[in-house]
Design goal:
6% of the residues lie in helices and 38% in strands. It contains five helices and 34 strands. Strands 29, 30, 31, 32 and 33 form a five-stranded antiparallel sheet that branches. A hairpin with a 5-residue loop joins strand 29 and strand 30. The mean pLDDT is 96. Pathway: Organosulfur degradation.
Length: 455
């Protein structure tokens, strides 16, 4: 929390499902207000292939390796959600000019692990790297984990024991002090690859569960079915305090946040603690528009929870001093599907909020809605990008695919709570040299509150 202020961030930029047939790339963005290149992309590292769908990234070493002088946070692990490649990027030699270090080909995941569609990366205290996967090589759902060697980055094996994979995969977080790892579910890759079909939910192609794993034996020991209110549980976050036995997961489809916790019996349980109600609308694909919670994070002091409602268009800040009763203390609208100049009319809103005005920053209209979030170490700056996943971007926000996504910064009141857009900060990925791009998840070179785990 007392680390240096962020000066650059890395984020993948995607061309799949856009009009540009070029490789995705890793952008380096200058976020130092004292720099002459502030708010600019200062470097682009293209991948060697097209249609990868770069998505989330992680590190070869993080706070779980603290105290081990042989470990350095100098490699960014960059899985490709659709192609199933894993790129290892050297960010240590020249942090402002990353270079490709190694490519792990899909065949290694397929043949050694029977897995595909890698998503979340975490480093381990052992020096190895663990990556969650969403599917099998044929596109069916399969929630398993790939182990990489932390030096060679070769695929070692599955992390989970044979036969223990979950029906679906997505995100995960581990806490060795409590001998536990908990993973979440999105859906079957072949169902969601090119867009969202609501019928697929009823057909069982999307998940509703959290899976509890024994950290020592690598066995799945419990499944928490969150039910209809917990459909499509995505980002999962333990509290950062390694002694804590609780955390939160954002469930996209019904706009729910569940608190998960270890009960006195030793078993794990979950309860819904936040609900963002759907709005009755006309002029949209369905009569009810969900908030679609797509990203959540917890401040490093475990005081505030933030999440983005990608369809409704707002970011919310909750005081979680009482984890069972989160209290809304900040909200800001940044685009979304219900702006008052658009085709959608809100007929009934249980929260009685007016339709928001369109958002302009630096003269640029924000298309799409707030999606990926990253918080500064001191908690005072919240960075946000607008692209979710190119197949869904194309379906729900075609204007964003045409015009490019943006990166914004929100000023945070860390005393009483409150969110205010920084009107001087905008990174416009609509003006990229290769054409408008879809920028996704953000990473700081020094670590952040969504990639680092403390032991």
């Amino acid at each position: 929390m007392k680390g240096d202020r962020e000066k650059i961030v890395y984020l993948p930029c995607i061309y799949r499902n856009t009009s540009t047939r070029k490789a995705d790339y890793l952008a380096t963005v200058d976020v130092d207000p004292e720099s002459s290149s502030y708010c600019q992309v200062v470097h682009r590292l293209p991948m060697p292939n097209v249609n990868d769908e770069l998505h989330h990234s992680g590190w070869n070493a993080c706070s779980s390796c603290f105290g081990d002088a042989s470990k350095k946070r100098n490699r960014l692990i960059l899985p490709a959600l659709i192609s199933s490649r894993i790129y290892v990027v050297d960010v240590g030699t020249e942090p402002r000019k990353p270079r490709l270090h190694k490519t792990v080909e899909p065949v290694d995941l397929y043949w050694k692990c029977g897995l595909a569609n890698p998503h979340t990366t975490h480093c381990l205290g052992s020096g190895q790297i663990i990556i969650s996967c969403m599917g099998d090589p044929s596109g069916g759902g399969k929630g398993g984990f790939v182990l990489l060697d932390g030096e060679t980055f070769d695929v070692i094996s599955n992390w989970e024991q044979p036969g223990e994979a979950a029906p679906f995969g997505y995100d995960f977080w581990y806490q060795p002090r409590h001998n536990v790892m908990i993973s979440s579910e999105w859906g079957a890759p072949k169902a969601l690859a090119n867009g969202f079909d609501p019928a697929h939910v009823a057909e069982g192609h999307y998940g509703t569960s959290l899976h509890v794993w024994d950290w020592t034996t690598h066995k799945r020991v419990q499944t928490l079915d969150l039910g209809e209110e917990g459909a499509i549980p995505l980002e999962i976050r333990f509290l950062h305090d390694p002694n804590a036995t609780e955390g939160f997961v954002g469930c996209a489809l019904k706009g729910s946040v569940f608190r998960f916790y270890r009960a006195p019996t030793g078993k794990w349980a979950a309860e819904k603690v936040i609900g963002v109600p759907s709005k009755k609308v006309e002029g949209w694909m369905l009569p009810d528009m969900p908030a679609l919670i797509t990203d959540i994070l917890i401040s490093l002091d475990d005081r505030f929870l933030y999440f983005s409602n990608w369809l409704h268009g707002d970011i919310r800040q909750y005081d979680i001093s009482d984890t069972r009763n989160p209290r809304l203390v900040g909200q800001v609208f940044l685009g979304g599907s219900i702006t008052n100049d658009g085709p959608v009319r809100v007929l009934e809103d249980p929260e009685n909020q007016p339709q928001p005005q369109p958002r302009f920053i630096q003269g640029k209209r924000v298309y799409g809605g707030p999606q990926m979030l990253q918080l500064s170490l001191d908690g005072q700056r919240l960075y946000v990008t607008t692209s979710l996943y190119s197949g869904w971007d194309k379906q729900f926000y075609p204007e964003m695919v045409r015009e490019g996504s943006v990166m914004m910064q929100i000023d945070v009141d860390t005393s009483k709570g409150g969110l205010t857009p920084n009107e001087k900060f905008l990174v416009d990925f609509g003006n990229e040299p290769g054409g408008p791009a879809l920028a996704h998840e953000l990473r700081y070179p020094g670590g952040d509150c969504t990639s680092d785990i403390w032991l």
